[in-house]
Amino acid sequence: MKTKGAFVRRQTQDVFLPPVLASNLESCLPCEVDPAILTAGKQMSLILVVDDDDYLLDLIKVILKTHGHTPVALGSARKAFQLCQQKRFDLVITDLTMPDMDGIELIRALGAAKIDVPVLAISGTFNGQLQPVAAQLGAVETLSKPFNLIDLLAAVDRSLGKIPIPPPVPLMVESKTQQEKEESNKDS
Fold first, then answer.
1. Closest by alpha carbon to 74, among 95, 43, 97?
2. How many domains does one find in the chain?
3. Could you tell me the pTM of the whole model?
C-alpha cells in the first residue's frame, strides 16, 4: 500500500511531506532509487541552515543531504553569524523570524562583515513584508512557508547559481524586421 503523503502541523505552520518523506523521514527516497544517481556529476555544496524550529531544521537538513549537499544546521542566527566568520559556506538558508537575532539581522550582519555568501530567506510570516526586506538587504532568493520539496530544491539551485533565474517573459512578440518581411513577400 502506497503512502499518500501527510500534512504535519508544527507550531504555527503546516509542512507538506511528500509520500517518500511521510513514510520514512530518514530515507527521503524510494528504496529502489540509488542516492548516488541523484548526486552524480553534482558538486556538493556546504550549506548552513538556520531555523529555530527543530523539526523543520532537521527536515531541510535531510532533504539537502539526500540531494548531494553538506548541510550544517543551527537553531540560532547569532551562532550562525559566528560560524560564518570562521568558515566559508556556499549558501546560507535562514528563517526570517527567530528569537534573539532574526534572519533579517543575520543578513544585515553578513553584509556589514563583508561575508560574501548567497542567502536564501524563508519565512512563515503571512503578511509577506519580510521577504522584500530580505531581498533589499541582499537575499538572492526568498521562499514562503509552507513550501514543498521541489520549490526548496529549485530555490537552492537558483541560489547556488546552478539554475539560472529565468528572464521575464516579454509582453509583446516583436514584429518581423523589414528584411524578413521582404523575404517572405518574395516567397509568396
1. 95
2. 1
3. 0.66
